[in-house]
Amino acid sequence: VSIEVYLAYLQFKWPDTDIQITAGYQPVSMPATEAFYDSVVMANDDGDQATSALVLTAPVFGDVASLNAGFTRFVDTNGAFDTDTTQVADEFDAFFFTAPITLDALSFTPWGMVGIVGKGADLGDMATGLRSAGSYLPPDSREYNQTAYWWAGTTLEVKAFDPVKISMDFAYGSSASALQSSRRRGWFADAAVEYTGLSFMTPGIYGWAASGENASLSDGSERIPVVMPKWGPATSFLFDCDQALSDASMETDPTGTMGFALALKDISVIEDLTSRLTFAMVFGTNSAAGIRRALAVTGGNGGYMTMGQTLAVGEQLVGVNFDHYYDLYENLTLTLETGYAQGIGFQSNIWGHRF
Q1: pLDDT confidence of residue 177
Q2: Within 13 Å and on the Cβ side, how many CA atoms surround 218?
Q3: Sorting pLDDT into bands at 50, 70 and 90, what band is 79?
Q4: Secondary structure of the chain in HEC code, one letter for each residue
Q5: Residue 85's pLDDT is what?
Q6: Which of 11, 167, 278, 316 has the fewest C-beta atoms lying within 10 Å of its C-beta?
Q7: Whose CA is closest to 38, among 172, 57, 47?
Q8: Closest to 227 (Cα-Cα) out of 53, 107, 81
Q9: Burial state string for 266-276 with b = 16 or more CB within 10 A and e = fewer than 16
Q10: How far is CA 34 from each of CA 70, 166, 194, 276, 298, rounded to the nearest angstrom?
């Protein structure tokens, strides 16, 4: 394929109402605070991740609140070319809602999503974010033809202490399966404090924590299921978030980790030059025995889990990046992103001596 559709959608208002309808191939994400770029569950990545969707937006109580509801189809494996006339469960569909509420001192957005994965759906790159290691074991006739997933969460931004800005996110997700070993459920939370009172930089501290795998495969996965994640604190290049250049991160999996980051953002002491300095440290919350067993049933390092991107308890990552953006001319910017990462405590009894 030489040409692929990037975005293609129609946006209009229902006649004589304020209800806005957006239909087509479009960027859709679950709510997330700006401090962490985008959603750890489902992100649009500044419009670079799109999906076929229908979204309705209706204002409630004027400018104070609105209600968004929608449907999206992530996967339709056979499309219009099913192998026979019998309906094949080869889709991954989801229904979602968000309810952003904005007040003088704070804003928050509760949200929820329910997804249905057909047994014949080819999830591709989404599979590792939705499946448990136990689901790679031999299939069982008791497995559902359609597997349901659900997520719920909220964002919170506090502006009452301006110029100190406080941001928080929380999400929980779970799958329903006939087999306990195929279930995946877990939580993820983050928080940030930024000081916006300086004209030449924005300092901030960021932290997060997430549930991790236990030692057993028989009870499924204890990490939150994710669909299209794009998350990271202050553009730490340990995580795939809002780097200016593609493939410019270590692609650490934030599920099954906890950690903190310190950052100086929007540094502008030289005219036309904007810089950012970020230090981050990541700790694993996954059981070493759980990862070891997961590797044994999923084909080893680099498939379902990868050394340095999936972290066990006792393993850490340290990363620092210093990024610069210089406006050579009004419409020409020179970008330089630099970073250094170091893994600490990788365990050979998990990953083997060769790695």
Answers
A1: 78
A2: 0
A3: confident
A4: CCCCCCCEEEEEECCCCCCEEEEEEEECCCCCCHHHCCCCCECCCCCCCEEEEEEEEEEECCCCEEEEEEEEEEEECCCCCCCCCCCCCCEEEEEEEECCEECCCEEEEEEEEEEEEECCCCCHHHHHHHCCHHHHCCCCCCCCCEEEEEEEEEEEEECCCCCEEEEEEEEEEEEECCCHHHCEEEEEEEEEEEECCCCCCEEEEEEEEECCCCCCCCCCECCCCCCECCCCCCCCCCCCCCCCCCCCCCCCCCCCEEEEEEEEEEEEEECCEEEEEEEEEEEECECHHHHHHHHHHHCCCCCCCCECCECECCCEEEEEEEEEEEEEECCEEEEEEEEEEEEECCCHHHHCCCC
A5: 76
A6: 11
A7: 47
A8: 53
A9: ebeeeeeebbb
A10: 22, 11, 11, 16, 35
Scan for tokens 């992103």, then name that residue: 337
92 burial via Cβ count (<10 Å: 0-12, 13-18, 19+): buried
User: Following CA atoms 304, 50, 44, 282 in sequence, which dihedral angle do they give, to the nearest 10 degrees?
Assistant: 10
Two tokens, residue 110: 């509760």
Q: Which amino acid is at 344?
A: I
Residue-wise pLDDT tens digits, 131-170 = 999 988 877 555 678 899 999 999 999 999 999 999 999 9
Return the residue matching tokens 């394929």: 1
Q: Letter for the amino acid at 67?
A: L
Locate tokens 């990490």: which residue? 223
Cis peptide upstream of residue 163 (ω within 30 degrees of 0): yes
Q: Name the region of 256 (left: φ>0; alpha: ψ -120 to 50; beta: rest).
A: left
pTM of the predicted protein model: 0.94
The tokens for 341 are 């990462």
